[in-house]
Amino acid sequence: MFQVLEPQAPDALLGVMTAFAADADPSKLDLGVGVYRDATGTTPVMAVVRAAESAMLARQSSKAYVGAGGNRQFAAFIEALVLGTSHPARVAARVVTLQTPGGCGALRLAAELIARTGRGTRVVVSDPTWPNHMPLLGGAGLAVDTYPYYDAASGTIAFDATLAALERLAAGSVVVLHASCHNPTGADLDAAQWQAVAELLARRGLVPLVDLAYQGLGDGLEADAQPVRLLAERLPEVLVAASCSKNFGLYRERVGAVIAVAAGPREAGIVMGHLQALARRSWSMPPDHGAAIVATIAADPALKAQWSAELDAMRQRITTLRSRLASALAAEFGDRRFDFIAGQRGMFSLLGIDAAAVRALAAEHHVYVAPDSRVNIAGLPEPQVERLAGALHAVAA
Ligand code: LMR
To answer: Between the chain's N and C termini, which has fewer beta carbons within 10 Å?
Structure first.
């Protein structure tokens, strides 16, 4: 049976993880996969997560299944975190939320739900986008295409081209949007641009699928959710894939949720039934541990405040690292070509260097970034900022 299989090309980001692991140089620096690291280069367990996990383990009396919808306290918390407690769509009972294994599980379930609508729906993702969007969504049987998003020369959003491309889509098409923060560019739409996108989607009958993997790491928990709240006010149908990997540091626990806003309560109930059926035939019932930690934090005002403060500190540190890196690059290169890094948000920016320079960074300087030159600024320890700037100057000046 297996003889017919061709060798599989490695996934872009997993390939970087493998290459980094194989590098024996003690000074190696991993700026590939998107994980937050502290000044010592460690991805810490958040103190609030440790506290909640201990409390939860002491209290937990059973490891019985949680059901296809997952932990309902977790789902209610994530829904309120994303949409706010009194969003009109929630008040109108138009929203359903199902726990998933990570944001990937949410994206895949959303894609399978879209495929079930059976209309040969076209899905478009930004160019560039997170490399796993295409296989995740396409693997559910959807035809996935791109829309222009980013102008690499200026490090800014090519917004006129974005709007023009969305304007040409057939009604019913699904548009994948990154609420905050855009992966891989770090270039997010501003409030006026979100208004324009919401107006266009409403007028053209397009459906947004919002990837919300970094809530709290852009401009703050509330600010980062505003685009989703706007879309859910303006449009009859919205899908959201939310993740707790980054904002709770629960990467390996695989904690996420798919949120569906439907035209009315009846439609929302039917959508929930489909989501549960789709989950049942994929992973059956989701893993509990990480979601139970989040639910424990959500249920305790002191833990919730601690979480919010820890997350704020992470975000502020990333913003400071962005400024420091832009300044160090300006000093190395003698110009301001990398200033866009300071103005962008979240973990990532695209350096805009070519594939040969990316390879030279790894081979000659033991610095690993993604093949598209995406750098994980949240993974850059402070003592390494000048070293990164110097290495970039050596390979790309
Ligand atoms: C990333 O973009 O690096 C993260 O979302 C991790 C992943 O699964 O690719």
So the answer is: N
pLDDT of residue 140: 95
> How many structural domains does the chain have?
2
Are 288 and 324 within one domain? no
First CA to last CA distance, the chain: 51
Residue 339 forms part of a structural domain: yes
- Interval 185-199: pLDDT, tens: 999 999 999 999 999
Rounded to whole angstroms, the Cα distance separating 249 from 244 reads 7
DSSP 44: P
Exposure string over 331-348, b if 16+ CB within 10 A, otherwise e: ebeeeeebebbbebbbbb
Query: Can you give the pLDDT at residue 57?
Result: 94
Question: Residues with beta carbon inside 6 Å of ligand 1?
Answer: 13, 33-34, 130, 132, 183
3-state secondary structure of 142: coil
pLDDT of residue 43: 96
The residue contributing the CA closest to ligand 1 atom 5 is 34
Q: Report the separation in Å between the CA atom of 182 and the middle of ligand 1, taken as the mean of its atom positions.
A: 12
Q: Same domain for 358 and 376?
A: yes
Q: Are residues 364 and 239 in the same domain?
A: no
Q: Which of 163, 167, 165 is nearest to 194 (CA)?
A: 163
Furthest C-alpha separation in the chain = 62
Please list the active-site residues. Answer: 130, 211, 213, 246
For the chain, list residues with pLDDT below 50. Answer: none
Residue 266, pLDDT score: 98
Considering the domain boundaries, does residue 54 fall inside one? no
- CA–CA separation, 345 vs 350, rounded Å? 12
User: pTM for this one?
Assistant: 0.96
DSSP run (H or E) holding 257: strand 256-261
Query: At which residue do the structure tokens 């505003």 appear?
Result: 226
On whether both 288 and 311 belong to a single domain, the answer is no
Of 132, 182, 349, best ligand 1 pocket probe by most atoms within 8 Å of the beta carbon: 132
Classify residue 137: in a domain, yes or no. yes
Given 299, 316, 347, the domain boundary residue is: 299
Of the residues 239, 271, 299, the one at which a domain ends: 299
Q: Is residue 59 included in any domain, yes or no? A: no
Give which of 325, 335, 247, 261 is closest to 290, Cα–Cα: 247
* Residue whose CA lies nearest to ligand 1 atom number 1: 34
Asked if 150 and 187 count as a contact pair (C-beta separation under 8 A), the reply is yes
